[in-house]
Amino acid sequence: MKIGVPAESKPGETRVAATPETVKKLCARHDVIVQSGAGLHAAAPDDAYAAAGARIGSAEEAFRAELVLKVRAPDARERGLMAPGAALVGMLDPFDTDTLAALADRRLQAFALEAAPRITRAQSMDVLSSQANIAGYKAVLMAANAYGRFMPMLMTAAGTVKAARVLIMGVGVAGLQAIATAKRLGAVIEASDVRPPVKEQVESLGARFIDVPFVTDEEREIAQGAGGYARPMPADWMKRQAELVHERARLADIVITTALIPGRKAPVLIAEDTVRAMKPGAVIVDMAIGQGGNCPLTEYGKTVVKHGVILIGEPDLATLVPADASALYARNVFDFLKLIIDAEGRLAVDREDEIVRAVLVCADGQVFRRQ
Ligand code: NAD
After folding, report:
1. If you take atom 4 of ligand 1, which residue's CA is the nearest one?
2. Same domain, yes or no, for 62 and 141?
3. Interhelix angle for 173-184 vs 127-146, to 10°?
4. ipTM for the assembly
5. Which residue has a Cα nearest atom 39 of ligand 1?
6. pTM for the full predicted model
7. Do 191 and 169 form a contact (C-beta atoms < 8 A)?
């Protein structure tokens, strides 16, 4: 089968969907065409792909393949290059109904890997986790860079420097990695999440969990989440959380917010009043900015200073670690392909398979809606 690996065209997208490592494995059974320059930002030059067995070609050739591997959904021009009936694998945004309709119009068979269920069998193809892990790491480094003081406690001949206090809001994959990274840099860490099992994970990394009490059974039930994801919490609980967060944020030097609810706007966790109460020179990295942000003052794609606080609203932090983000993403894609390619090396899409069914967002001109 012909497999195409186009270069990404979205501004700021540095990743590539297949690396020389995964291309080498694919070339054992397939004809792989990599667009010239596709791996440029990810430390994967054309000659590395050629050495792995790929043919280096144009965008037209890469998009014309029976199976196209992408990071982002193709734009209108790119969709136009694809053959009707071709398969497309990528982070296609399963909640972006316009893009999905456009893919269906081209009669593409599209797989949005973000929609994979959180079951053990799907772990090796979990793109949200692989990319969030990298983003959580990078968020701490960006914060440390913007912060005008040290992260660790230091005792020097010129006096003692206090360790930075870091507050992590939302402890999923990104938040856990942010805790681990801030810990390695010597910070003192507190963290908050709605899901009760997170407390133990936070404490096992040496951070303190901010307990927001549950008053009703309904609150406790909603906080369990669904399918491994959080659900929107009732207003009363959010108010109690905001009061506690306000007190902890006043003492913090760095706040990293990661709280997301699939398919919805991100919850507001750091209100303007809280920012106003924070120390001058404190830093907020709002990792939820792509979904509207956890802090209303952060601005998409910008670093701004408001009320003396540095607010970083960089989306897609994983793109700032392009080589490893691509390496992990490409392995996720490679593992997923095992589910849709049969022993003869042909596309064989089993719609009864739980993972395939979840990620197949359109086929035969039809969009399959998310819940
Ligand atoms: P996410 O990116 O969807 O959200 C980030 C975090 O924000 C979550 O922990 C969520 O609970 C939290 N959050 C939402 N609203 C909040 C609020 N109001 N206040 C504070 N926090 C709030 O989450 P994620 O990184 O995708 O991970 C979610 C969970 O799924 C984690 O426990 C992770 O370990 C688990 N997971 C399981 C598997 C698997 O079993 N295969 C794979 C990946 C992740």
Report:
1. 260
2. no
3. 40
4. 0.95
5. 118
6. 0.95
7. yes
